[in-house]
Automatic annotation (TrEMBL):
Lineage: superkingdom: Eukaryota
FAS1 domain span: 31-161, 183-331, 337-483, 487-640
Keyword Signal among UniProt keywords: yes
Record's keyword terms, sorted: Membrane, Signal, Transmembrane, Transmembrane helix
TM stretches of this protein: 652-673
Protein name as catalogued: Fasciclin-1 isoform X2
Species classification: Eukaryota, Metazoa, Ecdysozoa, Arthropoda, Hexapoda
InterPro entries: Adhesion/Biosynth-related, FAS1_dom_sf, FAS1_domain
GO cellular component: extracellular space
Signal sequence bounds: 1-24
PANTHER family for this protein: FASCICLIN-1, PERIOSTIN-RELATED
């Protein structure tokens, strides 16, 4: 109970500010009761005021043993005030057992009517969440008896706990419902105007009530009837397996403590059918939106593989047997083709593919019809952020150029992440696009349970940010760059391409790369890929070893300069082929930095692509025309090198040393005898 002596009001304010600011940082040295600590800590004034106004909460904290989870004032500032706050918030932040953090189990019962639980997530001893709110660890575990000797504990948290609320003036009282009772009584609950009747009817007709009534702690995703600008799903597509995919058993997953992208098995994870779910988020305008995805890893013949994404329209609703997230559409149901999937972003201004849809409409409306005509198609769709990249804005005004690039994002065939991973086991995976001779090259990086998929198309590297989005006639992967529009200089391309590490290293140690960032020049660079250097290490290990020794970096530079042309324009392989044709298919002169008169032949075979003949040996061009902002790279399968390069240089070096030694000897003789 608070002290009753009288002091000047101005002094009270001053003391509260001084004491409060100190206590907001630490409770060390504090010897007040929990209620007095709340009263005298300015950063906790909001929760104190709410408890003080509640007769039940105020009496409880003065008369009983309790644990108080106290949001700081900043948490209240981030929360929209509601008319019913005083009815729900005070008692939902109190439990009638004093518990330190290490004593908390999976849940504790609140003092709100019906004793709805607060769910506990322990990510580590120092990272603990109460529902969505994180415990401020250095302001937790404050213990003190109240004025009648009852032990109490205080933990400060960073968000206001939000219990399930009834609609104002609801004729029906609902106390601590489970997931089934939640759906059955949704019309009486304050759900921001959302309704769940369609999903409820399917659960009833398919007799799946029991999976929503199970005791314990689970996560439930409940689709709402309708969300503006989101595609509708035919109710009959929601079968028993689809319903099971909306439940993650034995895990109570609030958004805050759950890792983005971490996969959890749903009830639809069985011997024949394997469906997982995971969370993600995206910035859309000035808002952060949250999503849940179901990913069907193994099909049972009825439900196709691939992911289905739903926006979480109302999150983190605590209930008796877990947590409910209201979502914009049913999971697992694939009801749109690729064209319809893209079109669904038409009126969603900040939706992740809205800019892609707009660019298609402004450039080539027939492109979407082409997508719907293909029975199995994979679309790599650039995100809004990809189109907002500053370096590509000048290209976007060229509609003819953009039209030519759209098909670079399409593969005729269904290509899931699993297909790419299996194809990349012992080599870099490569597939053809709808643009002749323009392939996509894939690279998969695995770190623990996380996999990152990168691809290159038209010289641009992109990362898949959302994968395996399912459609009735294919699959969609959302990527973070527009393919075919260069955004990197030659040196940056070398540094970021995982297959060009060796050439990049030699260029760095020999300082050749220093010039490759110059945007005033135009470079044509025949770049040996890593496997070309590996081949050299097998064919001529001594030469390979010497080139990669820092003291011989000058030799490496000379070799690389043979691969580099600096001119007023960059040359595509087609440019070189045409020049060869003009020369009656004879040799083409390449004015490289090292060899001003280096002659090669070019051949172009429909199945194999381009090859270059250098010193009577044909070298395959693995990737032609990798465009950069200041030049073009051609990735080749062999290094332009022969034994004489190293031997001649070594001989010159040896001869130089010999001459120096002779001169030194003559000097010594001269000084000795004179």
């Amino acid at each position: 109970m608070r002290s009753t002596f009288t002091i000047a009001p101005g002094l009270v304010v001053t003391l509260m500010l001084l004491c409060g600011s100190a206590l907001a940082l630490s409770f060390n040295g504090n010897d007040k009761t929990v209620i007095d600590t709340l009263a005298w800590t300015s950063d906790l004034s909001e929760i104190y005021s709410i408890i003080e106004r509640s007769q039940i909460a105020n009496s409880t904290i003065h008369l009983r043993s309790v644990t108080v989870f106290a949001p700081h004032n900043e948490a209240f500032m981030k929360t929209t005030k509601q008319d019913t706050d005083d009815d729900y918030l005070p008692c939902y932040h109190i439990t009638n057992v004093p518990m330190k953090l290490e004593q908390l189990g999976k849940s504790v019962f609140s003092e709100l009517d019906g004793n709805p639980p607060m769910w506990i997530t322990k990510k580590s001893p120092e990272e603990i969440y109460i529902n969505q709110a994180k415990v401020v660890y250095h302001l937790a575990n404050y213990e003190h008896n109240n004025t009648i000797g009852k032990p109490q504990v205080l933990h400060v948290i960073d968000q206001v706990l939000q219990p399930l609320r009834l609609k104002k003036n609801s004729p029906q009282m609902i106390y601590n419902p489970n997931a089934w009772e939640f759906m059955e009584n949704a019309e009486f609950l304050d759900l921001n105007g959302y309704h769940t009747n369609i999903f409820l009817q399917r659960v009833q007709s398919l007799e799946k009530k029991h999976v929503f009534s199970n005791q314990g702690g689970h996560t439930f995703f409940i689709p709402v009837d309708e969300v503006a600008n989101h595609p509708k799903v035919r109710p009959e597509k929601i079968d028993v397996k689809v319903i099971d995919a909306h439940i993650i058993p034995d895990n109570v997953l609030f958004l805050g403590p759950t890792n983005e992208g971490e996969q959890f098995e749903t009830l639809a994870f069985t011997d024949m059918l394997k469906v997982v779910a995971f969370f993600s988020k995206a910035e859309e305008g000035d808002k952060t939106k949250y999503f849940v995805s179901s990913d069907t890893l193994n099909s049972d013949g009825t439900h196709p593989t691939g992911a289905v994404v739903a926006e979480i329209v109302k999150a983190n609703i605590p209930i008796k047997n877990g947590v409910v997230h209201l979502i914009s559409r049913p999971l697992m149901v694939v009801d749109n083709n690729v064209k319809e999937f893209v079109e669904s972003y038409k009126d969603r201004e900040y939706g992740i593919l809205h800019r892609f849809y707009e660019e298609i409409m402004n450039t080539d409306k027939d492109f979407l019809d082409q997508l719907s005509s293909l029975t199995n198609v994979t679309l790599f769709a650039p995100s809004n952020n990809a189109f907002n990249e500053q370096s590509i804005q000048s290209y976007l005004t060229n509609r003819t150029y953009i039209k030519s690039l759209l098909n670079l994002h399409v593969v005729n065939g269904r290509l899931s992440i699993e297909d790419i991973v299996s194809g990349s086991t012992d080599k870099r995976f490569q597939v053809a696009t709808l643009v002749p001779r323009k392939d996509l090259f894939f690279n998969v990086v695995t770190s623990g349970k996380n996999r990152t998929l990168t691809l290159e198309g038209g010289g641009v590297n992109a990362t898949v940010v959302q994968a395996n989005l399912a459609a009735t006639n294919g699959i969609i992967h959302i990527i973070d760059h527009v393919l075919g529009i260069p955004s990197s200089t030659v040196d940056r391309k070398l540094a970021t391409d995982p297959t060009l590490n060796d050439t990049n290293y030699l260029g760095q140690v020999s300082s050749l790369n220093d010039q490759l960032s110059d945007v005033q020049k135009r470079f044509t660079y025949f770049v040996p890929r890593d496997s070309a250097w590996k081949r050299l290490s097998i064919d001529n290990p001594s030469v390979y070893k010497k080139l990669f020794m820092p003291e011989y970096s000058y030799l490496a530079r000379q070799i690389l300069e043979r691969h580099l042309i600096v001119a007023d324009k960059a040359y595509t392989m087609d440019d070189l082929r045409k020049e060869a044709n003009n020369n009656y298919n004879l040799s083409v002169k390449l004015p490289t930095v090292r060899d001003v008169s280096m002659y090669v032949k070019i051949k172009d075979l429909p199945e194999e692509g381009y090859s270059i003949e250098w010193r009577n040996e044909w070298i395959h061009v693995h990737r032609a025309d990798v465009r950069c902002t200041n030049g073009i790279i051609h990735v080749i399968d062999q290094v332009f090198i022969d034994d004489n390069d190293i031997e001649v240089n070594a001989a010159i070096a040896t001869k130089s040393v010999t001459v120096m030694l002779l001169i030194l000897a003559q000097c010594l003789v001269f000084f000795y005898f004179n």
